[in-house]
Amino acid sequence: MNRLALMVIKNIFRVPGLYGKLCKYAKNPENYPEQEMYDHIRKIMNVAIAAGNVTLEVYGSEHIPAENGFVMYGNHQGLFDVMAIVSAMPHSMSAVYKIELKDIPLIREIAACVKAFPMDRDDVRQSLEVIRSVTKELQAGRNYLIYPEGTRSKNGNVMGDFHHGSFRCAISAKCPILPVVVIDTYKVLDQKGSKPITVQLHFLPPILPEEYAGMKTTQLADLVKSRIQECLDANSKE
Fold this sequence. Notes:
Elements: H1 3-9, H2 15-27, H3 34-51, E1 54-59, E2 71-74, H4 80-88, E3 94-98, H5 107-114, E4 117-119, H6 124-139, E5 144-146, H7 168-173, E6 177-183, H8 186-189, E7 197-203, H9 209-212, H10 217-235
Helix pairs in contact: 1-3, 2-3, 2-5, 3-4
């Protein structure tokens, strides 16, 4: 059985209530506390993960900054990545996501609740505007998740190239960077079957502004990628 279908079937009587409440939030998100909406989204993710025969091993939670206003950069393997991170991240967070996903049910509502920004990778001007907007949000104390590969890897635990432009917002906002590593998550929703599976999520020690002060975006991209690669090399069995 398809694992996504399993997640839905096992929660068939809960789906209407969970999705209905999400839609209520998404219709007028300004009327609700951000953490309240995020906690509901997190509940949906946890319910789905439990039903999908997925064991999520989380490492390094102690590295999550106590204060808001940080940006997460991670490797991207598949649709499950964001589910895993939201499940493990107690602080409300948002994300930059590809514009092709903006009208998909569930993603559409979640994006509205967390003020996520859709990015058109083929439109340089729009992409720069998104980076500027995220910079302002980081400076205002919100947390963001960005995938510098731009799209999910097609090679499992092997990363693609990092787009250094995505690091402009961190440099401009002078905020902590939290590297995030996922291992084997591509097997959850991007492969057939629904047998029990174990995946890993690692929060690495944050990179503080004083550590990357004076770096160019290319240098910062290389630094973050090297930290993520070290974790992949140490923990991936592939």
